[in-house]
């Protein structure tokens, strides 16, 4: 049986947006020293400050001890360059959902980190096999796919590409369990498990909106209040980010040879064109301000 990485292992997180900051929060509160890198240094500062506030809230609610929170905060460190990640035992990448950008990052990383370091991608939908293909040692790259918001969502898909070493996937699985998550093994099929099954939820919601069946808020309310879903499709896309969700749909569509079932939506494309990315930009299908979500239209 594979063992989890021990608490003395350093974890590096590359990309400190919505997902990277959540992954860093969970790794630090699980006892690891965590190095956080982003091409935008201000994003690292924002992520570390945001994690600090999240720990404060957990302390207020009695779910974390004050000392435990202080120690976790101290374990989080900004990294000014990729070279500073060289002591990591596991690097989790959570950057933009773009194959070429991810490949370039891992090509740089594999020359910097130790031979035993595990390289993990949090990609939602890009082939893990393809991300790894140009590496000198593709067997050490694995998908470690968390869900949003990371501290609250238990599921982690541990995704094996064609070349992924099974022992490495098992170590990542055991590590996710040690971090309090509920991992599942998956192969690198387009969208893996959850993003494949969830595609029609978004696509049919968007089609209903285009056909003017009802407005987004009504459709969300029906799915939430009567359908038993925790979130309707539009509020969920706003949470995920339209840039991310649109890229995932495009990637699954392309990977299934343009199967019409996965056709991306022009409505969502226009939101991306407008920069209305959802919660993170203050506007998507809803407007966000002072903690209130208002229909945008
Ligand atoms: P985000 O837009 O919130 O954050 C991405 C961060 O990566 C930004 O801070 C950006 O400055 C940084 N970045 C971009 N290129 C970089 C590079 N070359 N090197 C270092 N940093 C770089 O995006 P989010 O939502 O955190 O998504 C990140 C990844 O996680 C994507 O692959 C996405 O598909 C995946 N994901 C997203 C989920 C979601 O609900 N948003 C859920 C699960 C996975």
Automatic annotation (TrEMBL):
Residue ranges annotated for the 3-hydroxyacyl-CoA dehydrogenase C-terminal domain, each copy included: 191-288
Highest taxon of the lineage: Bacteria
Residue ranges of domain 3-hydroxyacyl-CoA dehydrogenase NAD binding in the record: 11-188
This protein's UniProt keywords: Oxidoreductase
Record's keyword annotation contains Zinc: no
Keyword Iron applies: no
Descriptive protein name: 3-hydroxyacyl-CoA dehydrogenase PaaC
């Amino acid at each position: 049986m594979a063992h989890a990485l021990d608490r003395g292992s350093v974890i590096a997180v590359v990309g400190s947006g919505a997902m990277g900051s959540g992954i860093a929060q969970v790794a630090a509160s699980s006892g690891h020293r965590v190095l956080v890198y982003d091409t935008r240094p201000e994003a690292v500062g924002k992520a570390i400050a945001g994690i600090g506030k999240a720990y404060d809230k957990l302390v207020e609610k009695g779910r974390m001890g004050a000392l435990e929170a202080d120690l976790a905060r101290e374990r989080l460190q900004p990294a000014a360059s990729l070279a500073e990640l060289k002591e990591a035992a596991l690097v989790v990448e959570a950057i933009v959902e773009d194959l070429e950008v991810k490949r370039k990052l891992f090509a740089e990383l594999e020359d910097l980190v130790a031979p035993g370091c595990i390289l993990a991608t949090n990609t939602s939908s890009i082939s893990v096999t393809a991300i790894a293909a140009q590496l000198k040692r593709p067997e050490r790259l694995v998908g470690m796919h968390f869900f949003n918001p990371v501290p609250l969502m238990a599921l982690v898909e541990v995704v094996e590409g064609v070349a992924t070493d099974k022992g490495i996937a098992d170590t990542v699985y055991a590590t996710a369990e040690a971090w309090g998550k509920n991992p599942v093994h998956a192969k690198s099929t387009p969208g893996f498990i959850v993003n494949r099954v969830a595609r029609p939820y978004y696509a049919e919601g968007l089609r209903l909106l285009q056909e003017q069946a009802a407005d987004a808020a009504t459709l969300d309310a029906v799915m939430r209040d009567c359908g038993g879903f925790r979130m309707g499709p539009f509020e969920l896309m706003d949470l995920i980010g339209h840039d991310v969700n649109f890229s995932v749909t495009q990637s699954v569509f392309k990977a299934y040879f343009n199967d019409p079932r996965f056709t991306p939506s022009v409505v969502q494309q226009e939101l991306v064109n407008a920069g209305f990315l959802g919660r993170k930009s203050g506007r998507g299908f809803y407007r966000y301000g002072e903690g209130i979500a208002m229909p945008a239209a």
